[in-house]
Amino acid sequence: MAERLSDVEDRIDSVRQLSSVISAMRGIAAVRSREANARLAGIREYAETIGTAIAQALALYQAGGADPAVDSGEAGRLLILALCAEQGFVGAFNTHVLDEVQALADSFGAERADLLMVGSRGVAAARERGLEPVDCLAMAGHADQLSALANRLGDRLFARLQAGTISRVVIVSARPDEAHAAPYSVVRQTLIPFDFDRFPPANLAQPPLIHLPAAVLLARLTDEYVFAELCEALTLSYASENDARMRAMIAARENVARKLDELTATSRRLRQEQITEELIELSGAVRD
């Protein structure tokens, strides 16, 4: 009986240590989510500034009697940028993203779709489904690394565009659910073909002074806006990943608390049984 009691007490110590680890992981995830969300305002302000410049550049471009040529992208290959989790304990986060990736590839034609993935856990989950990415990158481990990751992802994307191997680019990623009906929602966002209709040409009373041809200026601003969109998508995905991890840790902590209650009750029962047996032995010895 004493040995069984000691085993239970050892398990109680282990469960308490596990509870401390879970609480620490939850705290880290909460901090990372807040850090990511704090960067969104700056990213969106930057994108808005570039968008204003695009509207002005469009006015200059069209003043020369031209419109930006936009390929519909339906005839070429599709590149899907799937943003998944780098680390574990995120519940069904990767599954939800990959479900949307699979649906998009099937609707476009799997034989004409390539997959570029961010997030090591997502890559492993994709391969289990038979989805082999043409390229993959690790997701940022800290919010400060997101802009550098966006640069690397942009370099890979533009290299494929310049090589002429793709004509359409869609991001599939998670973002926090603004309605709070769920921890996050998975969305599709088309990067290429670039949607110039979002930026009505500005009515310029006084055209800005420029040192580049309007076509070159517009192309560079478009690239910069795509970079801003990549930054925003990565930041939202990173925040969603950590929100998912935080919720998973809350659920784990509740399970651990229940297990600890069960073990504590078992420990008390065994201790009481041990005391009872000792009293019986003692009373027997007194009678003898």
From TrEMBL:
It is a peripheral membrane protein. GO terms for cellular component: proton-transporting ATP synthase complex. Keywords: ATP synthesis, CF(1), Hydrogen ion transport, Ion transport, Membrane, Transport. The keyword Ligase does not apply. InterPro entries: ATP_synth_F1_ATPase_gsu, ATP_synth_F1_gsu. One of its GO terms (molecular function) is proton-transporting ATP synthase activity, rotational mechanism. The keyword 4Fe-4S does not apply. Pfam families: ATP-synt. It is found in: Membrane. PANTHER family: ATP SYNTHASE GAMMA CHAIN (PTHR11693), ATP SYNTHASE SUBUNIT GAMMA, MITOCHONDRIAL (PTHR11693:SF22). Produces ATP from ADP in the presence of a proton gradient across the membrane. The gamma chain is believed to be important in regulating ATPase activity and the flow of protons through the CF(0) complex. Belongs to the ATPase gamma chain family. This is ATPase. It comes from Novosphingobium malaysiense.
